[in-house]
TrEMBL record:
InterPro entries attached to this UniProt entry: CCD81 (IPR026295), CCDC81_HU_dom_2 (IPR040673), HU-CCDC81 (IPR028034)
PANTHER family, sorted: COILED-COIL DOMAIN-CONTAINING PROTEIN 81 (PTHR14362:SF2)
Matching Pfam families: HU-CCDC81_euk_1 (PF14908), HU-CCDC81_euk_2 (PF18289)
Residues of the CCDC81 HU domain: 58-125, 138-207
GO cellular component annotations of the record: microtubule organizing center
The species this protein was found in: Nothocercus julius
Protein name: CCD81 protein
Length: 217
């Protein structure tokens, strides 16, 4: 089983020709780790200022900002379905339950794998389509870039190349985990797909712990 975070910073796998953005970001991530050990804070700041392109943060941090954006959208009172092109759509399924004469609203995060990806990579996921009454929107690159020092073009290229790398691994029939920070893990085992959401994320959507335990079981 491979971890996506480790693979996208493996320079031997990220050829300059095939994944130029990942190559650049991975090189910079390794470089800054070295520089932090040998330079003072002021020298490091000067180096960052003089670099021809930004190198803070790395690929993992960019995807962390993507995850943060998805999470914020799903936690809205009236959330949209958030579509990550080339991956799938995250949305909230709501239902009502009566406990001890009281009505409770519950919210369950869902993930629907892109049909194109499923067909191309021959994957199977036990899920239903996004309900028609849920409005779907694409990720907002402006919001994603609002707290990281990268252009929208760089972020888009990073996401596209990461997903292309993801497809390559799947097509080679390797098991892999695609982690979305503070949301959960997209687990690929053979041709089976499962999205596992973190307990803390479920708790942020539902104030009743017993509901979360049911969702985790």
């Amino acid at each position: 089983m491979a971890n996506m975070e480790a693979l996208i910073t493996d320079l031997e796998r990220c050829s300059l020709l095939t994944f130029p953005t990942l190559k650049k970001l991975s090189c910079n991530a390794n470089a800054i780790s070295f520089f932090r050990n040998v330079l003072t804070a002021s020298e490091l700041a000067d180096l960052e200022h003089d670099m021809p392109f930004p190198y803070f943060p790395d690929v993992t941090t960019i995807w962390g900002s993507v995850s943060k954006h998805i999470q914020q959208e799903l936690m809205l009172k009236k959330p949209y379905g958030v579509r990550v092109t080339g991956l799938g759509t995250f949305y909230i399924k709501k239902w009502i339950s009566f406990e001890n004469g009281e009505m409770h609203n519950f919210r369950r995060p869902m993930f629907s794998l892109s049909k194109t990806v499923a067909q191309t990579c021959e994957l199977k996921q036990n899920s239903i389509d996004v309900p028609g009454d849920i409005k779907k929107v694409g990720v907002n690159y402006e919001k994603i870039c609002s707290d990281i020092p990268y252009s929208q073009e760089m972020v888009q290229c990073c996401m596209k190349e990461t997903l292309r790398f993801f497809y390559r691994i799947i097509m080679n029939r390797q098991d892999i985990d695609f982690t979305l920070k503070d949301i959960g893990v997209l687990v690929i085992r053979g041709n089976e797909v499962k999205m596992t959401f973190y307990k803390d994320f479920l708790l942020s959507l539902n104030k009743y712990g017993y509901v979360v335990q049911q969702l985790l079981s």
